[in-house]
Design brief:
The chain has helices at 3-16, 90-100; strands at 22-27, 38-42, 58-59, 65-67, 70-72, 83-84, 112-116, 130-135, 146-147. By secondary structure, the protein is of the alpha/beta class.
Length: 148
């Protein structure tokens, strides 16, 4: 679905509910964007421990890492990639990640961490009047929009 069609449909539904919302669009991550070299570490609501995207503490880097010696999947899990950060603090998890990727990529950038605190946690206020829509580079919506 196109971004325009998606927003129009959500606005129609909001009008039926007599609600108004701010729309925030994000482009789905790709390896050509600034920050492509960051691993997103999702925390618990208190920002004290690593939760991961699915709640199991597993953290992944979504792209192939291009080093001078070739491309590779990042992580300590050699089969699936990623890092098991269950029961770690975000800082501990980041240290494990950075230590496991000691070489820069072909652009000269080192792996970095981005700590993401879920909506409603410290510094990331949850609101019921914001709709987040993620689009691809061609402005198509491939993921369900969400309110947060």
């Amino acid at each position: 679905m196109s971004l325009t069609d998606c927003i129009a449909e959500i606005q129609r539904q909001l009008a039926e509910l007599q609600k108004d919302a701010e729309f925030i669009t994000h482009e789905k991550r790709n390896p050509d964007q600034d920050g492509y070299n960051k691993v997103v570490i999702v925390t618990d609501l208190q920002a004290e421990s690593v939760k991961g995207k699915t709640g199991d503490g597993h953290v992944e880097y979504p792209f192939m890492w291009r080093e001078a010696t070739g491309e590779r999947v990042l992580g300590t899990d050699e089969v699936n990639g990623g890092w098991d950060c269950h029961a770690m603090t975000p800082a501990e998890c980041c240290n494990v990640i950075v230590e496991s990727v000691p070489l820069p990529d072909t652009k000269g950038n080192y792996i970095q961490c981005h700590i993401f605190v879920p909506f409603g946690g410290p510094g990331n206020t949850k609101k019921d009047d914001r709709v987040f829509v993620t689009v691809s580079q061609d402005l198509l919506v491939h993921e369900a929009p969400f309110i947060a």
